[in-house]
Amino acid sequence: MKKILLIFTTLFFSQKVFANQPKDWQLGFQEAASDTMRDIVNFHDKLLLPIIVAISVFVLFLMAYACIRFRASKNPNPSKRTHNVAVEVLWTLIPCLILIVIAVPSFKILYKQDTIPKADLTIKAIGYQWYWGYEYPDENLIFDSYMVEEKDLKADQPRLLAVDNEVVVPVGKVVKVLITANDVLHAWALPSFGVKRDAVPGRINETWFKAEKVGTYYGQCSELCGIKHAFMPIAVKVVSEEEYQEWLSEARLKFAKEEIEDNKLKLASK
């Protein structure tokens, strides 16, 4: 009994402390780390969820009322009524009004997601079976990002989410992400930023985010892409501007595009 109570307590009362990555027994969204994600959470929690709960309770009440009020023992002679114009008008108009109430704020969020402001930084994400490749076109950087195997995990690295090379971005900057794939369909998704875009071979999709908090944020490929679909996580490390410049200095030596491409050509020619 104590174990059951602990599970329910975790489910319903610990959601708000979650950040950066999913947790055991989590319900609801990860903590928002961008303005877009905060709009999504508010839309869900303050509008969509109350409407769903109200409709569910109302329908349950009607079903219970009908079962009790019109049971056979109370109605030996069933009603011959075929329709009711007023009721039919109401059950048509009310759902239409509810849909309009839901649609207006959802369209605003969709427009905000698809309208990319002037970018401070551009990153290209390329989906492969089964890892992500990244490019920083303005900095001439290119690198691959593989999941860290469980046997190689460090104490502070989450299982199935940690990667060997994280995407690093500065806090408070608009980051535009160009997303494509090299083989099959993938999807680049980061729940804390409210970002999810399909990665389609031969096509480039765009999205953006502006991280508000320093930290490491995790996502995963969200489109079935083969046997190791569950093993291609996404990790974005948000740092201060000073730390980002330091990382860039190191990355230019480690991930210089020309040098990496030359090495690949040499390997291919052997």
Question: Care to describe what's here?
Answer:
The protein is of the alpha+beta class and 270 residues long. It has 2 domains: 35-114, Helix Hairpins; 121-269, Cupredoxins -  blue copper proteins (Immunoglobulin-like, Sandwich). Helices cover 39% and strands 23% of the residues. It contains 5 helices and 10 strands, in the order H-H-H-E-E-E-E-E-E-E-E-E-E-H-H.
Q: What labels would you give this structure?
A:
270 residues; alpha+beta; Helix Hairpins; Immunoglobulin-like; 2 domains; 5-stranded mixed beta sheet; 5 helices; 10 strands; disordered N terminus
Rounded to an integer in angstroms, the radius of gyration calculated over CA atoms is 25 Å
Tell me the strand order in the biggest sheet.
3-2-1-5-8
Spell out the helices and strands N to C. Answer: HHHEEEEEEEEEEHH
Domain count? 2
- From the spread of the alpha carbons, the general shape counts as elongated
CATH overall fold name of the largest domain: Immunoglobulin-like
CATH-level-2 architecture of the largest domain: Sandwich
Which CATH C-level class of the largest domain is it?
A: Mainly Beta
What is the number of E strands? 10
Task: Please tally the helical runs, counting DSSP H or I stretches of 4 or more residues.
Answer: 5
Span of the ends, CA to CA: 65 Å
Task: Name the average pLDDT.
Answer: 87
CATH H level, superfamily name of the largest domain = Cupredoxins -  blue copper proteins
Largest sheet: 5 strands, mixed
